[in-house]
Design goal:
There is one protein chain. By secondary structure, the protein is an alpha+beta fold. The protein folds into 2 domains: 38 residues, no CATH class; 37 residues, no CATH class. It is 31% helix and 19% strand. It contains 2 helices and 6 strands. The strands form 3 sheets. The chain has a two-stranded antiparallel ribbon. Helix 1 crosses helix 2. The radius of gyration is 14 Å and the shape is globular.
């Protein structure tokens, strides 16, 4: 899967810089829009995950990795997820 520019997972925002970063479709081919942590074998790894649950899952990692207050991380993650196709509904 050649990429002219790095794309991001449309569920969590992880960069899809390498082939192995991409999830897999039901036929085994690589997903063009979702990462391996969010999408495998043609479906989401956590199909019932809500946007608020995703905020609760990703914000602590962001706060820790970037050394920011948890409330600020939650605000940033909530805003970012609202721009991704999986969470726009």
């Amino acid at each position: 899967m050649e990429r002219e520019k790095t794309r991001s997972c449309q569920s969590c925002g992880m960069p899809l810089a390498r082939d192995e970063d991409a999830g897999t479709e039901a036929d085994g081919s690589r997903s063009a829009i979702y990462c391996t942590y969010c999408y495998r074998d043609g479906g989401f790894t956590e199909p019932g995950l809500t946007r608020e649950e995703a905020v609760g899952k990703y914000a602590p990692m962001m706060a820790e990795n970037l050394g920011m207050p948890p409330a600020k991380a939650e605000e940033m993650v909530r805003q970012y997820l609202s721009t991704l196709p999986r969470w726009r509904e």
